[in-house]
């Protein structure tokens, strides 16, 4: 039984398109409907969904050629969109321009199993990509080609500096990123195409032209060309014809040309629009709707490309752990506040009672003890007992948020913590997770060793042959447990 699933409600996910001139948001909004039943005590409840579409124009050069130029302004715009539209979901699949994203298709024999396929992909990444691995974030997806029976693996990369700017802006805007992908992959997910038919599509950007090929809604080829090179319609058509002839020669099949301006959203998602939309308007929502469709995929089955330091599944788990820690922190604070108010109420009651007793005149005749006075004395004894109990609870309840905040402050980029185990404050405490590289893992260990709260930090050396995504388990003790208790 996973306690996180019981304590944390599943969050809806929005599709967020960031473009050179506009921001678009799409998400599936659930609508509850009650169907009256003639022979039932209660009406039957059903849930339908509707696509909500939001568009916001942004100033020129906020994003240029796929690069964030004004991080502060973009952060402010995103915050305003969420505030103005009263969006409850902070989780997003983010789709960004393809100008600085490199994608390539690699083919491997169908006889290669999953383990050997991953090894082959690692070799292709190291020797065939025109970038150093340490300078990029990358993701890959196996789109098995049923017609040829081979493993078609699409690999995408983005320079870390460019991706980090997007991540920083979204984090500052309070948006939790579950995946970062290219516009082309979002379009491939939402566009209406004929099955088993290769389609060549042209996408016009603010300062570039992208020509890409889709088959069975999977990306087979893409090329982004600056508009300085293809400055008029004739040059665009010449380049399109050249690419088309090259692909047809290589794949030995005819391509169908399609203008993105005349494209439609898949039929199965048309019903969620709630109303008829002109084709000229519909095509501009292909990217954000494609990202929103990915948000509807069960998280454990989302193996699509993500250009984040961690995969989509790991990003979702991180968000759940983050939410769980915040929930526990708020519960501890709430319980503490309750006992503080109970203590103050008891204190003021006793103080008021003592003042009343002092004000009684000494000349007042003494009468036999009444039943009411006996009941009040019993009540005072009960209040005193509750006060002692509440003080004991506050004094013996350790404040774990001190340790958690300290570990969070020392967690560097590239470290993902998936488990935190603390049997008791006097036992060994352990954290487990993954590190992108061993150097980052060693750096994380040194930072923990420098903590004023931790001691005996131990990192067993395992998986020496693994160069990336290294699983780890670090144990430590609390240096001075008394620091975690309320005085």
Q: What structural class do the secondary elements suggest?
A: alpha+beta
- The helical percent reads 25-40%
Q: Could you tell me the mean pLDDT?
A: 82
Number of strands: 18
Sum up the overall morphology in one term.
Answer: elongated
Contiguous runs where pLDDT drops below 50 for at least 5 residues: 3-8
Strand order of the largest sheet: 3-2-1-6-10
The profile of the biggest β sheet is: 5 strands, mixed
Distance between the termini: 36 Å
Radius of gyration: 30 Å
Beta-strand content estimate: 25-35%
Question: How many domain modules?
Answer: 3
Count of DSSP H/I helices: 13
What does this structure look like?
The structure is a single chain. The protein is an alpha+beta fold and 487 residues long. The chain folds into 3 domains: 73-308, no CATH class; 328-359 and 369-393, no CATH class; 401-484, 2-Layer Sandwich (Gyrase A, domain 2). Helices cover 38% and strands 27% of the residues. It has 13 helices and 18 strands. The protein has helices at 3-7, 71-84, 114-128, 160-172, 183-190, 233-251, 267-270, 279-282, 286-295, 312-358, 371-396, 401-409, 438-449, and strands spanning 13-18, 22-35, 44-57, 63-64, 67-68, 91-96, 102-108, 136-145, 150-159, 176-182, 199-204, 208-215, 218-226, 256-259, 415-421, 429-435, 454-458, 470-478. The chain has a 5-stranded mixed sheet. A 4-stranded mixed sheet has the order 13-12-11-14, with helices on both faces. Strands 15-16-18-17 form a 4-stranded antiparallel sheet. It is elongated and about 105 Å long.
